[in-house]
Amino acid sequence: MCYKLGKAASDNSRNPEKSFLVSAYKNGVPVFIPAISDSSIGLNMLPLIFEDVKIFPNVMLDIAESTAILWKSKLSGGIELGGGVPKNFFQQTGPALYQILKLKDGGHDYVIQITDARPDTGGLSGATIQEGKSWGKIKTSHKNNVIVYGDSSICFPIISHMSCQNAKNAPLRDYIQRKVNGWSK
């Protein structure tokens, strides 16, 4: 669904170069929205029921795709924007592989989570990233994992911009600037 949204925004938006989903679409980066029914996108899909639309996004395919990415990866990681559902959706691929499908031990190598949730309120599904090691969601409990406590709608753009700025002096600067379509300007 995010791929199709990125394509539609690329084709129809006045400023597609400013869109995260357009950049993800153009670069083949998967983006998942695990709680689609609990979002404005889900609400805007409601009229489709009355228009007799028969095909809706299959969220089980998102689970299969995200699990396949981990299964095929020598190294894996991701950025989680939010607590509870986004955290669990991304990290559940480890247990899906070894507990459910019996294919591969492990979990993700790298995790960056940007959230305003706290474990004591249940917003992080009761646990920090480090606790995910005990479930096989991540490979190590401390190395290569970062939690940024803050509003992801503010922190993610700042971190993305900073990353692009830091890449200006790196050998991949020109490649990144082409791929990110001017975010570093």
Brief descriptors of the model:
about 10% strand; about 45% helix; about 180 residues; single chain; disordered C terminus; three-stranded parallel sheet; mainly alpha; globular
How would you portray this structure in words?
The structure is a single chain. The protein is mainly alpha-helical and 185 residues long. It is 44% helix and 9% strand. It contains nine helices and three strands, in the order αααααβααββαα. Strands 1-2-3 form a three-stranded parallel β-sheet, with helices on both faces. Helix 5 packs across helix 7.
Unreliable runs? 181-185
Helical percent range? 40-55%
Secondary structure class reads mainly alpha
**Which H/E pattern describes the elements?**
HHHHHEHHEEHH
Mean pLDDT: 81
Count of individual helical segments: 9
Largest sheet: 3 strands, parallel
Strand order of the largest sheet: 1-2-3
Number of strands: 3
Structural shape: globular
Strand content: 5-15%
Short précis:
The chain is mostly helical and 185 residues long. 44% of the residues lie in helices and 9% in strands.
Task: Give me the secondary-structure topology.
Layout: H1 2-12, H2 20-27, H3 40-45, H4 47-50, H5 59-72, E1 77-81, H6 84-91, H7 93-100, E2 110-115, E3 145-149, H8 152-166, H9 173-180
Parallel strand pairs: 1-2, 2-3
Helix pairs in contact: 1-2, 5-7
